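Example record

One chain of 893 residues, shown exactly as stored in the release files.
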Amino acid sequence: MGLWSFVGRAEELDRLSTAATSGGRGLILSGTAGIGKSRLLREVVDHLPTETYAVWFASGSLSAAGLPFAGLAQVLPAEQPPGLSPSALLRWAVESLRQRAAGRPIVLAIDDAHLLDPTSAAVTNLIARSERATVLGTLLSGQPVPLPIRALWADDLVGHEELAPLGFADTTGLLAELLGGELDPASAERLWRLSEGNPLLLRELIIAAQSGQELTQTYGVWRWTGRLELAPSLTDLIDTRIGQLSPQVRGVVELVAFGQPIGLRLLLRACRHADVEIAEERGLIRVDVDDRRHGVHMAHPLYGEVVRRRCPVTRSQRLQAQLASLVEQTGARRRDDLLRVAVWRLESDTADDPAVLLTAAAQAFVGYDIPLADRLAGRALAVGGGFDAAELMATILMFRDEPDRALATLEAVRAEVTTDGRRSRWLMVLGLVAYWGLGRESTIDELAIGAGDLSDPADRARVNSFEAIMRLHRLECDAALRLARAVLDRPAASHAAHGLAQCTIAHLQAAQGDLTGSGRAIARVEADAPRWRTELPYLQLALELARGTRLVLAGDLTSIDAIVAEEFADLADAGDFRLGSGYLSVVRAQAARMRGRLDEALRHSLQACAMLATGRVFAGLAHAERAHAAALRDEPATAVAAMTDSDRAQAPGMAILYPWREQARCWVTVAEGDVAGAVGMLRQLAARLRTDGFAGHELTALHDLVRLGRADLAVDRLAELASVVEGPLPGLILRQARGATNGPYGELLRAANGFAEHGLYLFAAEAAAMAVRRLRLARSPLAGQTNVLLGEFMAHCADVHTPALRAGQPNLTDREHQVAKLAAAGVASRDIAEQLYLSIRTVENHLQRAYGKLGVTGRGELAGALRALPDGVAAGAPGQAGTGRSGGRTVAG
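Predicted structure tokens for this chain:
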């Protein structure tokens, strides 16, 4: 793995570049080893134009720190004048650089400035004090700094900042660069936390994972198994930082490595105060203060990994048993103490209380840490947990995409189903596994029969709530609504049963266009979450599906951004809860598609496909969204393949998702060039949706007809739906439809601006393109102004190729586009002629034809009008470079 492209650090790069070019204060960055400060400095220096600036790069060296001028040997003349005093030598060094600068401003960049020899440090200080000179530099945090360098920021000659670790977004970008493809969010999160945003450590982790074949790729998305392989280079690096430890200090470090975060008081009960102090002073552990609590962590996550790996098995078991006993003796007062004790008991092979293990497994499941919940529940079952352990274990196995094992686990405890309470719980898990895991549609009827045999109203309501949501997913909407209402009418029903019933109703109301009613039902479920989450944590999936359906149909991108930033999204990503994380990736893709950011839509949908690859629930939807994004990018082969995958992965029990899938299929047909066929498919889909009463979905299908130029087939029904479906979209879509059926072109512009106000730039651009086409055909002088507006909307989009946008494009030739682009950049006609080997008259003729096609009156309007062309290229110029189809990665900088 060679040197990677520079990724992220946009703010730091901007500050350093500004310092280099402003002619004022320089900037010195401090940071830990491997944090990326040297690379950042090099990136700035390499991009400074040497015709404008005299740029020199030097670096301090430990091996040469005692030699005069050793640090600046790369930039000073090889031979020094003889016989000069020390002060004269300093003046000579400064003057040498000034002479070589030849009037240009000096930029002196010093990497590892803390290692400069005294004379080089003094010269650097003098340069910083000179006119038209700037000093940039890096320092290693915690190291002594030469006084002349320290004086630079003390005298306000340079700024001095600490370079922070990479944030999660930049780390994700760097990982994609290292791997040559996207990494799934859960893996990226774990690697970011392990490396603490240190690029060097991150690179070593990736090299080790690749060497150990711990990275797999599905649908172009990489996934890390989570098994950490430590390469010798990484282990050596960490060993050097840890250094030699006495047995007592090693004992402190090992306890923290296995127990972090461990309370300081607890640690001091187990270890001598002096040893704890030494470990903290050496930077091996850190003490974090939260309110009145003091928690002790390893100074870096990888320190803990190395310490745990080096610890013999017998000692690691003893230490974890000791930790468990220490916390038990204090009463396990903190909320997560029980879970932590159970894990220590599990790891030390002293876990023998099924009740404790089962409670801990349930806590892990509530936190969506599926692998940990699996281990704890499995141990609880093994040590005699009986029915309760089997019920939880089967549920967890379902969410680990192992329905066959889940069913076998349930069947093994069938004889223990001796009460109505147990039978209702057993029926629910059986329904979950058999219906959604194994695709057995007969399960619904079996569930209904089983519920009828229950005498307790609360137990019957629990099963009925599950039956209701299953019937909704099978499109038995009337039966689902009747069952859900009956559950809500039973005061004895549990909070989980009420929550499932509310989710059923909320989903149905969203599909019907009753966004207010759906929102109220969702809010009630959210407010009651503390009561149902312990009993039925996976109810969150039903809630997210109802909420996601509502927000996407409403075009409420702001609220979508909010839900994908909430705690559940973080827990699902970090805890390997693939169904939750996968569905949220689908919602992210849908939002990105409506924004016109098809690159993001395709990336999120691929992530969803990878996360859902082994399951049956949302996989068909994920592939359909991938097909939809590819179709709008005008990539028919990819779109057809994705739609085929969707058909193969779609589970019969998820029929409720058919509107999204069939709309995607229509756009795949468009990408194949059969617009008329797609129109026919959309008309059939709209008729089916009307029959099913899904007015919210019907609105979006009719909008697709408008977008494909057949507003005449939709406008009358859209007028009816405007009084049925709530939210701003019905009115905007109706405006667009009326404007597209030879109504006032102003309706198209009002629709476009309305879409843009809600961030729906794909729809905004298409409505504006329709207006441009109308005005251009009418030879209206307003065409140029509207084209500029279209360009503003297109600036928010990426890789979009739809019939509406193509119809609104001017058919510039390659040469007209080339000339117009140069003119828009401010290049004079004479210079354009010289660059392209044309006469000035020919250049002007090309410009006049471009003005006419674009509907503009002069150069000042060209830039905005050219932005209206998808990907910034001429229409009718296939194969031209810059079409946005490259698989290469654009790196930040």
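Notes: The longest strand covers residues 133-140.
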